[in-house]
Amino acid sequence: MKHPKEEKTYVMLKPDGVRKGLTGEIIKRFEQRDLKIVALEMFQPSHDQIDTHYPKNEEWITRLGKKTLSTYEKYGYDAMLDFGTLEPEKIGPEIRKWLLDYMKSSPLVKMVVQGVHAVDVVRKLAGDTMPYKAEVGTIRGDFSIDSPALANKDKRARFGVDE
User: Fold this and answer.
1) Torsion of CA 14, 17, 20, 22, to 10 degrees
2) Euclidean distance between CA atoms 16 and 18, whole angstroms
3) Domains parsed from the chain with CATH numbers
4) Which of 12, 16, 31, 57 has its CA 20 to 30 A from that of 110?
5) Do residues 148 and 40 touch, judged by C-beta distance below 8 A?
6) pTM attached to this predicted model
């Protein structure tokens, strides 16, 4: 009999995780928490697939720009020097472009994970979307090495996506 709290959720391993060979370790962590991988595929995303995956609306783009400005301020970087503006609505599209380029830089792994409270369990196992805030023991805490400042200075976006 199916548990009333049985759920499915989508998980995508980004280029760094795939390049580092972490797919098996990440699956192992899900399975250790009684989650099942019910679909799995490694694929090279097209521009259209990635472009469709990330929002394009003005609110999301502006929020991306605000997060970037906040990160620049926190780490003492000069956003005006890098972007030529301090307007979040103009910085956001540049960050989105960096994100799309990063996501197309190598194959990705997409999977569907199923289990009791799968959405919450996967979020807890993954950790904070900002790697420097992720707790040790979470996937991001253990395997992500970038700070947002490094991501921005290297022109690679590391922003989480609300699904």
Assistant:
1) -140
2) 6
3) 1-44+108-147+157-162 (3.30.70.141), 56-106 (no CATH)
4) 57
5) no
6) 0.78
